[in-house]
């Protein structure tokens, strides 16, 4: 039965609680960042007064290693303050996007961040202007040793760094160019009203972006279909606005790339982490070459569900319906901690304390709260987790394990790296999160020999691999096509988006899934499309995670993996993974993961077809 929240947040109720009605122990503790809102305001005032002082370094950046060090340390002080302020402000908006005080706070901070970036815009060009020999001498000076890595990274950007005046214009233009993200968030999380549907008992169930995932897993096909239809009809009502917002996002990406002398938007996105373009294309090619395996799974799903044709709203309901479970949040913590024991006592005890005592996690849905889930960590304060946990959605246990992977990655990185080297790139972040999911699955499979329980767990992993590897790769291909279209002068209209997305749906889902026309609008509701070239890292991340998890479970040695977590951003991600034992420049990790998917489908078919044949 679909979840509807109550005072305990684990029984049924139609109306979402207001933020102030949620029990304190179910929310995150933001006082670890600032004891009071007044303390935040004081820090905001301090940064507002202090940031202008950075101009005293202008024209002197390359004078000496000592002068450069003084600048870098002062800039670090400003950035640490800004990160802490942003951490608090962003989390407050996430917990209730309708809170005008939080929105005002975030808006003021965004203006301050723009001023800081504008005022500091001289730094990169002046560092780039230092003569090669002098720069080499600076790097050899012991006083700059803690800054060697970020300085070398910055130096790589020499051909993509503009003049002082141009950098200032880029900084000033950023809020306008990035406005699509806020528009999309406010429209989909606050303004759009999806209404409600009736469950099989005739009760009204509120339809939200969070409850949508729960309803798609309902065993009653009519409820799944009604939820799908009503949900996408609301998106259809706003389709032209959303298409214009997505178009603006893509145009902004292309503007940024061209302004900084990149050959394409995708090159601009991959350059900073030194990820080769061939890796992106290699991922798409490898996944597309295994489309027959995906079609095999969809055919299995159709046969088990006993439907004449499979629709997208039939692809999320668990195939082993008798194993539907109700897992409380505390039970989920217990299960996750047990699965992570191969990583050692420090990892497990730190995570346990964070989730149980230190209130890292904001657990349940409330009115105005951001949908989905995320981990948000900074150099100071806890690595917080936002959840919209539902006890009847088993995948939420996986989501919690996923976000805990991010949070523990942050915890290890900040405890082992300086501020300038701790903030790991997304490419590595998705490895740590999906690694936890792989360990969770292996733990669950090892805990039971009962055929239908195994089938339930296998089904969960197959669907996870499907959504993470196949689906995210399809998203990555959509981003590449749409950005290439903008770069070649094509019009980014609603018709273009839906036709392009339909062609990809036909490629990745057919012939196993019947494509409803409303599904074409999915391209307008994926948040990551408004922050492009992110999603491919989910796919590469799970490939690396599967490979690393195999090593930990096979050898019983987690030392290389823990070193990976500690490395932060101290190396380029491809090098970091290579030291951990995974070569992402080859197709091997992707092939290993695709082969795992194929094996799991075969095992699930043997279990389920045997069951139905009896």
Q: What CATH architecture label of the domain at 33-177 applies?
A: Up-down Bundle
Approximately how much beta-strand content do the residues carry?
Answer: under 5%
The poorly predicted ranges are 1-14
CATH topology of the domain at 33-177: Butyryl-CoA Dehydrogenase, subunit A, domain 3
Number of separate strands:
5
- Succession of helices and strands: HHHHHHHHEEHHHHHHHHEEEHHHHHHHHH
Shape from CA axes?
globular
- Give the count of helical stretches: 25
What class would the helix/strand composition place it in?
A: mainly alpha
Instruction: Give the end-to-end Cα distance, rounded to a whole number of Å.
Output: 28 Å
Give the proportion of residues in helices.
55-70%
User: CATH top level of the domain at 33-177?
Assistant: Mainly Alpha
Largest sheet, if any? 3 strands, mixed
- Spatial order of strands in the largest sheet: 3-5-4
| CATH homology superfamily of the domain at 33-177 | Oligopeptidase f, N-terminal domain
Radius of gyration over C-alpha positions, nearest whole angstrom? 25 Å
Average pLDDT works out at: 91
Explain this structure to me?
This protein is mostly helical and 614 residues long. It has a domain at 33-177: Oligopeptidase f, N-terminal domain (Butyryl-CoA Dehydrogenase, subunit A, domain 3, Up-down Bundle). Helices cover 62% and strands 2% of the residues. It is built from 25 helices and five strands. It has helices spanning 37-50, 65-95, 100-119, 123-129, 132-140, 148-156, 164-177, 179-191, 209-215, 221-237, 239-259, 265-271, 277-288, 291-305, 329-339, 345-356, 395-416, 419-422, 426-446, 451-487, 494-509, 536-555, 559-566, 573-580, 588-613, and strands spanning 196-198, 204-206, 361-362, 374-376, 384-386. The strands form two sheets. A three-stranded mixed beta sheet has the order 3-5-4, sandwiched between helices. The protein has a two-stranded antiparallel sheet with strand order 1-2. β1 and β2 (204-206) form a beta hairpin. α8 (179-191) runs antiparallel to α11 (239-259), α15 (329-339) runs antiparallel to α16 (345-356) and α17 (395-416) crosses α19 (426-446). The longest helix is centred in the last third of the chain and has 37 residues, at 451-487. The two termini are 28 Å apart.
